[in-house]
Specification:
- The protein is α+β, with helices and mostly antiparallel strands and 417 residues long.
- The chain has 3 domains: 75 residues, no CATH class; 231 residues, no CATH class; 93 residues.
- Helix content is 40%, strand content 22%.
- The strands form 4 sheets. Strands 2, 3, 4, 5, 6 and 7 form a 6-stranded antiparallel beta sheet that branches.
- Helix 3 runs antiparallel to helix 4 and helix 8 packs antiparallel against helix 9.
- It starts with a helix and ends with a helix.
- The relative contact order is 0.09.
């Protein structure tokens, strides 16, 4: 019996190293690119340096590995300037209609597919359009001669969108889509895929210089908004102090994640001295939105604003150009809704008058507020300007009311025929 136990023990001792070695061989290895995509740069460098050493021993080229080492240096530099942003929500949705889940406030305009806006079912490019709440200009992506999407703008004349003009100041070699313009009318965010991208689509910002009549050199937003994955839509709702952006990082095919954040009035960066490279990588990739939280009251207030916007938001309403009430049961949202030719002609005048009415009202509100805080001398100077604007507003309101009645009567007459 002792001999049998001895033989079994010896067999176990002899076979254990082989079994352990087999298990070690079966452990899957992680390539350098996987580590790079996860911002685990030290591990990626270890893998690449081993590969370079082995390749040199076999006298084979190492250019690919050396290029990746250079890419790590570039990403490290970008990551060191990661913006400190507080993210309050995220949700995974289908990529094909993600824009329907971005609950922007009514003042922010709307994001629409070009296919829907122009009623062109043959458009399968995925081109997007941004249309502000007020104004007769849209920003859109449109294919060039090679079929690559480029950003354009177009103005509305006689209920038709005129020739689309390309924004030539943007990188001519990149693919561009997903425009969004701030309320100032000059700050343009968009996504582009090109040499200046970290990977795939990246989000860029540019501003229109009215003195030079051109857009300025675009800037890459950097991390955490951009990553080696595709980062698409970026929009800021100034009225509700909420920001939205879309990315397919860590998502399966056909899915994207919509992140909601609190926009910074002034850009803030993480102090890299307080974080390890691994911690900075998690923040740059938005590994967990909870890791970005600081003051819980600040976060809770933003969440309340988000819930308010979502509860009052109607995605169908975002496909409208305006809201014109015909009667208690009928409201129009587009010039093509009208049956009356007279109403179709007058509606552009109504849009312009309504826009002017809003502008005058806002201007007067500012003047009146300033007037209330001014001394007697300043009030004396401001009074004539306020009276002049009040008179102009009164005339414009009367004109707008007359137009409204004429359009409504013409349409009702057409409907009753």
């Amino acid at each position: 019996m002792k001999h049998i136990i001895y033989i079994l023990t010896l067999f176990t001792l002899l076979t254990l190293p082989a079994a352990a070695q087999k298990k070690k061989q079966e452990t899957p290895t992680i390539d350098a690119q996987t580590y790079i995509d996860k911002y685990m740069f030290e591990k990626a460098e270890e893998v690449l340096e081993k590969e370079i050493k082995n390749l040199k021993r076999r006298r084979k080229p190492t250019q690919s590995q050396e290029t990746k080492l250079e890419e790590i240096d570039r990403l490290r530099s970008i990551m060191s300037a990661t913006e400190r942003v507080t993210f309050i929500d995220s949700m995974v949705v289908s990529k094909k209609d993600f824009f329907k889940h971005i609950a922007l406030g009514d003042e922010c305009g709307r994001i629409i597919q070009a296919q829907t806006f122009f009623d062109n079912q043959n458009d399968t490019t995925g081109a997007m359009i941004y249309k502000p709440e007020i104004g007769e200009r849209i920003w859109l992506a449109k294919g060039d001669e090679s079929g690559n999407l480029k950003l354009h703008y177009s103005d509305c004349e006689d209920s038709e969108w005129n020739i689309h003009k390309q924004i030539s100041e943007l990188d001519s070699d990149s693919i561009q889509n997903y425009p969004y313009v701030m309320a100032d009318g000059i700050t343009l965010y968009y996504a582009a895929q090109g040499e200046e991208s970290i990977g795939g689509y990246d989000i860029f910002v540019t501003r229109y210089d009215s003195d030079e009549n051109k857009y300025l050199q675009p800037e890459n937003l950097g991390m955490p908004f951009n990553s080696p994955a595709n980062d698409y839509m970026f929009a800021i709702d100034e009225f509700n102090a909420l920001g939205w952006f879309v990315s397919d990082r860590n998502q399966p095919e056909g899915k994207v994640c919509i992140y909601v954040f609190i926009p910074n009035n002034v850009r803030k960066q993480y102090d890299t001295r307080l974080y390890t490279e691994e911690e900075m990588g998690r923040l740059a990739l938005i590994h967990s939105i909870a890791e970005t939280w600081g003051d819980q009251t600040y976060v809770n207030e933003a969440k309340e604003r988000l819930n308010t916007v979502r509860s009052s938001w109607n995605s169908d309403k975002k496909t409208t150009m305006f809201q014109f009430i015909i009667n208690d049961h009928l409201t129009y949202y587009n010039p093509t809704d009208f049956k009356s030719d007279t109403a179709k002609k007058l509606i552009n005048e109504w849009i312009h008058a309504n826009k002017q009415n809003i502008s005058l009202t806002r201007s007067l509100d500012v003047l009146r507020e300033t007037y209330g805080k001014s001394d007697a001398k300043q009030k004396a100077k401001m009074a004539p300007h306020i009276m002049k604007d009040e008179t102009e507003l009164e005339k414009n309101e009367a004109y707008l009311n007359d137009l409204t009645k004429r359009i409504r009567n013409a349409e009702i007459e057409a409907l009753n025929k």
